[in-house]
Amino acid sequence: MITGKTLIDWGFDPKGRGRSFGEAIEIANLMSESGSDEDAIRATVGTLLPPAPPEIPLRTNSLPFNVFLEPENDVEQKNLDLVVEAMDKLVRVPTVEKAVVMPDACPAGIIPVGGVVATKNAIHPGFHSADVCCSMAITVFKRIDDLKKILDVAQEVTHFGPGGRKQGFALPMPLRANLDYNRFTQDRQTKYGDIAETNLGTQGDGNHFLFVGTLRSTGQPAIVTHHGSRGLGALVYKRGLAAAKKHTAIVSPRTDPQAAWIDADTEAGQDYWEALQLVREWTKLNHFVLHDRIQQRIGNSVVDRFWNEHNFVFRRDDGLFYHAKGATPSFAGFSPDDDGRTLIPMNMAEPIMVTRHADKDEALGFSPHGAGRNLSRTAYMKTATMFYDADKLLQRETNGLDARFYLGTPDLSELPSAYKSAEQVQRQIHKHRLAEVVDYVDPYGCIMAGEMHWQRKKK
């Protein structure tokens, strides 16, 4: 009788074979029972179990990468050390060709927030994470208006927190059809309905926000939203990472599973790239269904609007895939609807920068996505509450702002002092010519999710 050990002794490795190894054993036994000799059986098994591709090793030496983060105290130095350590490990992944670190970088997961990694023929789901296409969008209104009224309407229209809406916005039929067709975006039903529909018009939690302010250049009111692709993006990420791990376990088993990749030239790679574009289309819609509903309620005409991703995968003319984990593209044509402008927020108390592209080669054509953090949420809370109780901390940080928390309880880890110095990050943007600031949206107020159930449980 031919067993798995027989095939292993013949030189066939079961690793990564899945069901095909068992099927080969079954066929080998059928051939043996029908009188085939060993040479014939081994030849047939060889066609069923072709040699595995040669292992792609990790780089033994690091690739050089530019760092635009300049620490000014011990806490910032420690943050930089952790970021550089993470990036040094990351650039040893065999698909990586280039990398850079932005001024707002901080360690988080396999790739630091504020890191950009360019890869060859490979898309790494772990490099963009579950918050696919986290992005900024602005709508500017024509007439000077009551900002409190705009924020009041915005609070009625938007939705923060877990889950989706019981009564969602309608999903356009062409987008629905494309989502239904792609392997990474189909089968989206939950007990609450189609996640692409129930999550439409929702903003999530954490650092996502709805900001109301005025353009410094004209005084006109503007709304700015910050969020990603919600449950749809998380679904695509989960399926993409599973496919990537399966592929990389075979071709590069020493690569960290979180750094696994999908070969861009394969059918799966092409499908995943298309899924990312569908997620992008959904996310843009998600921003502007909220903006349009607010505009309809306040009756003020729109004079300008644009948007940009800062957590996504971009493909440039060199053919490389640029994975921006919290970094704003600053090169022409980063998207089909690029008009040369991007938005870079700092924190709820600081103006949002309107910038034009600098396309600095040494920065791979990217700029920061915001202020970033020097401390984790937990570490910040421990430090901040040593000096202030929650009410005093909130009052101190939001003085003069109409700051609202959708779920009721303020999330103190989202207060301005939880982030890096906005002035410092802007100074480094200017010093290194990462983007050109052309205007500001000065703050009136904002809405954030507020404290989530897991934060209360942790406390």
Please provide a written account of the structure:
It is a single chain. With 459 residues, the chain is of the alpha+beta class. Helix content is 36%, strand content 22%. It has 14 helices and 18 strands. Strands 1, 2, 3, 5, 8, 9, 11, 12, 14, 15, 17 and 18 form a twelve-stranded mixed beta sheet that branches. A two-stranded antiparallel ribbon has the order 4-10. Strands 6-7 form a two-stranded antiparallel sheet. Helix 6 crosses helix 10 and helix 9 runs antiparallel to helix 10. The longest helix is centred in the middle third of the chain and has 32 residues. It is globular, with a radius of gyration of 25 Å. The termini are far apart. The mean pLDDT is 92.
What key attributes describe this structure?
globular, alpha+beta, 14 helices, 459 residues, 18 strands, 12-stranded mixed sheet, 36% helix, two-stranded antiparallel ribbon
